[in-house]
Design goal:
With about 325 residues, the protein is mainly alpha-helical. Helices cover about 60% and strands about 10% of the residues. α9 (about 285-290) links the parallel β2 and β3 (about 295-305). The chain is elongated, with a radius of gyration of 25 Å.
Length: about 325
């Protein structure tokens, strides 16, 4: 039997995962900064009697662990990018790290809330000036880390991006960014509580801010859990984007989309399997060229069926 050269028809499934991601270096630097500030805040919160400051330090410890997971995820995704055992590459390692970060956020938010309630019931003296200085230093570190981790996909999306699902996010970097934002938020709440306690004697505000911080972090955790779980479970792209794909494929008035599955397989990368029925079928590449660039489709399989074929209930059209 004659053996054809199939090289031209084969392609890898790396999709850029073998390259050092933009967030990897920033995440590694942020891990070091977070660990240093974590130690300072835990020691100071214990020494100066501030629950808000101690909660911020413990919270920062959770973020150091989550950021470490994020950095290891980048390394693993890059190292195993060309491993043939991963059908669509290692892009989902990114989402898995994001999911893990979200779980850690939720666990430590619960811990913050419990500890704050305990401090409500058993208040302790607070050395306000020292605690405020340390909290301010922690906030400064968090702001620097947030700037390092923020990129165009990590920030807020406008309505068009949400509706069409454009540019799938780096959920690993998103998780790291949210951890740093949570730290910044708890630092701000700690400073507010300490200032109010020193100037107005509102000592109850210190543990109250701990509870408020836990509620805020819980909300961020839920959002990241939902986003990362959608990727891990191969959730279909938003309906608006699916409708745009169908419209582009059916623009000649002949082809009809019988089946469409499109899902995220990594940061900025989606895959799709499409079944088309047409009276005068064109080559698969002709249909692939119609796909919108905004869909970020990098792995597309197109099955074409002729109307003249007989389906389970007779001719297809």
């Amino acid at each position: 039997m004659h053996r054809h050269d199939l090289t031209a028809w084969r392609h890898d499934h790396v999709f850029g995962q073998d390259e050092t991601a933009a967030g990897e270096r920033a995440t590694r630097l942020v891990v070091r900064l977070t660990l240093a500030m974590m130690g300072v805040e835990i020691v100071a919160g214990t020494a100066y009697g501030s629950m808000a400051l101690l909660a911020d330090g413990v919270h920062m410890a959770s973020h150091a662990a989550a950021l470490g997971i994020g950095w290891l995820a980048y390394v693993a995704a890059r190292r195993y990018a060309r491993d043939p055992r991963f059908s669509f590459g290692t892009g989902k390692v990114n989402a898995l790290a994001g999911f893990s970060s979200a779980l850690l956020l939720a666990v430590f938010a619960l811990g913050m809330a419990i500890k704050s309630v305990e401090r409500f019931l058993s208040p302790v003296p607070i050395r306000f000036d020292q605690a405020i200085a340390v909290a301010a230093a922690g906030l400064l570190v968090n702001v620097v880390c947030a700037i390092l981790l923020r990129d165009r996909r990590t920030g807020s999306e406008d309505g068009h991006e949400r509706a069409h699902g454009a540019h799938p996010r780096d959920l690993n970097l998103r998780g790291a960014y949210l951890h740093v934002l949570a730290d910044a938020a708890t630092s701000i709440l700690a400073i507010v509580a300490l200032l109010a306690g020193r100037s107005a004697g509102l000592l109850w505000l210190d543990p109250a801010m701990g509870i408020a911080g836990a509620a805020l972090v819980s909300r961020w955790s839920f959002g990241l859990l939902r986003s990362s779980a959608s990727v891990l479970l191969d959730r279909q792209v938003p309906e608006a984007l699916a409708a745009e794909i169908r419209t582009r494929l059916e623009e000649d008035g002949d082809a009809r989309v019988a089946d469409l599955h499109a899902w995220t397989i990594g940061p900025g990368v989606r895959a799709a399997t499409i079944t088309l029925v047409a009276e005068t079928p064109l080559p698969p590449d002709a249909y692939k060229r119609r796909l919108p660039e905004s869909a970020s489709l990098r792995h597309v399989t197109v099955e074409i069926r002729s109307c003249r074929e007989a389906g389970p209930r007779g001719p297809l059209c």
